[in-house]
Specification:
Low-confidence stretches: 2-8, 10-15
Number of strands: 6
Strand order of the largest sheet: 3-4-5-6
Distance between the termini: 125 Å
Helix content: 55-70%
Structural class: alpha/beta
Shape: elongated
Mean pLDDT: 81
Order of helices and strands: EEHHHHEHEHEHEH
Strand content: 5-15%
Radius of gyration: 43 Å
Amino acid sequence: THTHTQTGHHTHTAMPSKNEPSCQSLQVQVDLVNKAVTQLGRTMVIGLSVLVVIVAVVLVPPVKQLEEQVATMKTELAALRAEMEALPPLVLLEGKRPDLAAAWKSAKDELKLTGKNIDNTTGVLIAKLLAYDTSFTLVDLHSNQLGDGAGKALANMFKANTVLHTLRLGYSHLGDEAVKALAEVLKTNTALQKLDLRFNLFGDEASKALAKML
């Protein structure tokens, strides 16, 4: 539009275009977006709540059932282990290593099981057998993988076996704990005359215990 001024100059006043949005219409659009975002947030919260309920209803009971089943299995396994431990050691040895059980039955006076790949568990069984089977004066377990567990079981065996006079345990992966246990029990066992502990894994502490025992 044109307007006259007192100086005779013309001024122009810009009129808003029909295509340009007004401030009011922009504010309305912003409000609508804010409402939509708020509604979306509420919907997501409701959706998450429903999901939590579904998980609680559907998944929690199976988890509890699984925990109960695991507990039952542990109890049954413990009972089975107790039954197995109650069996005579020779029966257990026959089940685990039939070859060693056969060698045991056929041996007379001397039991030689050198290099038979005897591990810690089997070594413990052999120690238990030697605790009540006093028919051997010499036992050779040289070159096996006995470890400290079997070594300590053999030490405990000497509390009952007073016949064995030679025990060969060279190259048998015996550490400090096994050798110290042997040294301690041999303070009172006077039957054993020869103990071979060459090339094992024990150190100075076990060596000192052996020296004191001698």
